[in-house]
Design goal:
By secondary structure, this protein is of the alpha/beta class. The protein has twelve helices and twelve strands. α6 crosses α7 and α8 runs parallel beside α9. Bound molecules: nicotinamide-adenine-dinucleotide, 3-isopropylmalic acid and manganese (II) ion.
Length: 357
Amino acid sequence: MEKRIVCLAGDGIGPEVMESAKRVLQLVGRLYGHKFHLQDERFGGAAIDECGQPLPARTLAACLASDAVLLGAVGGPRWDEAPERPEKGLLALRKSLGLYANVRPVEVDKAVAHLSPLKSEVASEVQFVVVRELTGGIYFSFPKERTAEQATDTLTYTRREIERIVEYAFQLAKTRRKKVTSIDKANVLESSKLWREIAKEVAVRYPDVELEHILVDAAAMEMIRNPGRFDVIVTENLFGDILSDEASVLAGSLGMLPSASHSENGLSLYEPIHGSAPDIAGKNKANPIAMIRSVAMMLEQSFELRKEAKAIEEAIAAVLKVGRFTGDLGGKETTSSFTDYVLRAMEEQVLVGRGKA
Ligand code: NAD
Ligand code: IPM
Ligand code: MN
């Protein structure tokens, strides 16, 4: 298989974890006979520094012409007061590529269940996915205004936007434990009232999938108290952002969770859910698992390379199993040494496989 992948390393730990992703992809190519053309493009604060804007036209054009996009992270204190922040480029990219469905799987690896602040028997039951609406809601609605005395953000959702993300969640639930939890604030927000009504309408088309509704405040509590009850969570943009960072604690660290963002036209982007982690940037300390898992999601979901994706997941599990962790999980490994072990585990799997054949 031959694919063109645009790599947007971005800022902070972005370039460090992107390096791990590229090394993994190059090895997958070598071990399984694929050609991945990796094309670096400027994005985020790095692009602001070079050409004054976070999403240069060239970068957007390259993404649109690619088979898939990989993204590290953007942002950092250097650009906090800039006229255009790096985060604006990320939002513009998501909107321009039509990436409405952000899928954030939350699973707790057996080897790290004891590192979760939850009891390990509760943590090891965690197996859900957050389906976050990514191109609407308060992030994108107008008017957005600020004066010295007043600031306004607007939260609008259309029927079409709600319907397509809820449909996405039901389709996904059909392939899993057949339960959708729709999270809203329907006791207060008009947009949530419409969201809940449409979720009920969509559910009628999926009689074999159970639908429950939970208010977002209670859901935040349930995610810690009884996370095993969730299978597919579907929620609006801002709630999904907050709840998925909360969910990462179940898995032991924000550095563990990958994501996929899908559009209607087949192009997808893959990125860790974490940010640029300015506090540890440039120190070779970042946990590369979220980024490497994003590569596995890309191989499976964009290219249908299931065997290759599984090999990556198994290699990560094998390294964790022997107690090799980065600092966020209480270990001594660096970004690069952890990646070295993952690469070695992947090579060993193939050698063992050949030995058996
Ligand atoms: P953050 O996710 O960057 O970091 C939060 C905490 O988690 C920090 O202590 C950090 O060290 C730790 N952490 C995050 N990823 C880690 C990893 N892979 N390994 C080990 N530890 C990790 O969130 P923040 O500090 O609130 O934001 C920093 C910047 O990142 C901001 O500019 C923010 O807007 C941006 N951001 C970008 C994205 C993105 O690019 N998708 C996502 C979230 C935040
Ligand atoms: C994320 C981030 C972004 C978001 C920011 C950086 C715009 O927090 O990808 O989760 O809020 O979507
Ligand atoms: Mn976030």
